[in-house]
Structures are given as structure tokens and as C-alpha cells.
Amino acid sequence: MKTIHWFLLSLITCVNGQDKSFESFCKFYGGKYQARNGIKDIRGDHCELALQPERNVEYDPHEHHHHFDQQAPYHVHGANYLTSKTICNIGVTLICPDGWIQYFGRCYFMEKRMMSFDEAEKFCEAKKATLPMIHREVLIRYWYEYFTNVHQIWARSTEPTVSDLIHDKGPHLMIAFDGYPYSLPPKSLLKVDGSIVKAMVLCESTPPITMAHLDYLRKRYFEIYYPSIMTEEGLFIRTTSKRVFNQDSKVDDDYCRGVVKAFMPLIGITVKSAKITADFLRNLGEIHRKEKIPEVFYRTSVHYSGGEKERKQPKCQVDQNPIKRFNVDPGLWNDQQPEVVCDAATYSTAIRLSEYEQDPKLEVFSDARYAPIYCQITVD
């Protein structure tokens, strides 16, 4: 089977929320390119690409797709097996800046100047990047095929990858695309003294999270966890644990950041307890009806507190207009809500799921009761 070489025509300034290097790649190989509709589009950039087998080679569509899936440094969304070829749909959700190329959700920039290891680290640091991490072996081939006239570069790797190198003569890791000077095959890993030996510099950075990438993570998250919700207001995920109300409004936000940190870096995003809107409640109701989730209540961070004066009155005074204290859209409340009793207590709110084909609504909820909460993630 013919190997696809992942070099692009050029690296162009990224505009209109597109990764232009991916667009160049798609058009170079005759693919059908579809750009995302602006930075807030959750679809990402897509490319429909035909894989043709070599002549005189028996065509196995499943093997063909597996080969492509292993090769492509992008998301492989699906494949259509035809009689003589495979049509693959690939895409990117993140966006790399001008002059950088994207592989596996990371951005790479090549500086074709020879530098010592320390000089290379400082060069990348100035670009808010690091020397590249070999997080998968196939990356070395992508760099080798794309970056021309590059003989050796500095890199980083985990200890198991470099624990048994033939050429181990220093503390710094180098990739020799041309292994001849070291009597090694091309694309070899070796360790050298980076204060004496020099190499070209490849920098790696993680691009900011986009709405498209949030949606991609939502789909992956749903494979192993509770269903999540994606709206124009961001990504909403629920907690596993049930929580009681805390007077400090930052506690729920801090808890949500801890939940989200487990599966995405907290870079370029804002994480907080969910802001309740009609769109969110409608989506939540649809998920519960579809997935038949048994949960009845979700606690929110919307809170009511009787004033200090009212608390100290000998005779408790019923709040005549509690809805203003909650600061919630009146249309989001259930019938006869919000209803508070005359005990000068504080109250949270909860989302109550309907047993019928209706959207969830808000109800007054005792601070002492436990329930899961939803966390909201928005792109900065």
C-alpha cells in the first residue's frame, strides 16, 4: 500500500477560525475540504479523502482503513468502503498559529539553525513552547517526512523510550534524521552532550481549546461517563458525587475545576458551576428522556438568603417577593415556585426532572440536601 507523505504546501496565517495548514494538506491530496464556520463552530475543519491501493495489490478495505487510521495525525471520523477505494473523513478541532503545523492536536514550529540544547530550550521558551515530546513513535516519521533538509533535532521523551539506546553519550536526547555520522539508521534516537553537539530546533506547543475541541471531548467523555451537554453557552458536564450547598460561592467553582482538570488542561477556558438557562434545561430534559437516567434532582449554585434584619426579627416575616433574591429568569421556575417558608433559613435551588415529556424546571431546595451539580466550561 502506498504511504501517504504528510507534507503540506505551505503554512499560512490562520484566519476565520481555520487551521490553514490542514486546509493546504487536504487540497494538496485532492480532498474535499470543509472549513468550520467561524471560531465558535463546534464542527471543526473536515477533509474527505480517497485512499487508492497500489496496483497489483489485493484491496482489503478494512485493512486500508486501519492503515489510514494509524497514519493520519488528525481525527478520523469515519470511512466509507467502496469497491476499489476507501473514502475517509478526517478533521481537526484545534487551530495552530501562523508558521506552525498541527499533528495529534499539538503545534510544531521548525527553526533551521543549529543550536546547543540550552539554546534550543530558551528559543522555544521565548515562543511559549517546549522542545517536542515523543508521545508516540510515529511522530518521528511525520517530522522526518515533512521537514526537509533537517539532519538532527533536539527532543524530549519518557524514560522507557530512551532506556536502551545504542548511542548513549550524554544527558540530552537528539533525533538523527540522518544517522550516518553516528553509524546509525535514519530517524534514530541518541543521547549526546548538548553543550558540545548542536542540532536544529523543533518547538512544540498546545493550542488554545476551541468550541470544536470542547465538542470532541464531550463525545469522548460520554463514552465512559455521564452524558454531557453542548450549547452555544459552552460544555456542561455533571459531577459523579452529590454535593451539599456551601455558603462560599467559590466552592462549587473550585470543585468543578478539579473535575474538569482530570480530562483537559485548564488553559484558555473558564470553568464554573453551571449557569442555568432555558437552552440548558431543554437539552438536559432531552438527554434524560433518551438515556432514561434515574436522577430526579440536580443542585445548582443559585441561592436565596433571608436578610440579616429578617433573621433577627422576633416574629419571622415571609418574604413577599423571593424571586428577586434568587435572580433567576421567572420562566425557569416550576409552578408555585419559588416557595420559601417563614423560618429565616437559606435555600438553594435544584433542577427537577419531569416524569412527563416536559423540560426540567427549577425548585427551591434545602441547603442540607445532597445532589449532583453541573459544571460549565466556556472558551475564553
UniProtKB/TrEMBL annotation:
<feature type="signal peptide">
    <location>
        <begin position="1"/>
        <end position="17"/>
    </location>
</feature>
<dbReference type="InterPro" id="IPR016186">
    <property type="entry name" value="C-type_lectin-like/link_sf"/>
</dbReference>
<protein>
    <recommendedName>
        <fullName>C-type lectin domain-containing protein</fullName>
    </recommendedName>
</protein>
<dbReference type="InterPro" id="IPR016187">
    <property type="entry name" value="CTDL_fold"/>
</dbReference>
<keyword id="KW-0732">Signal</keyword>
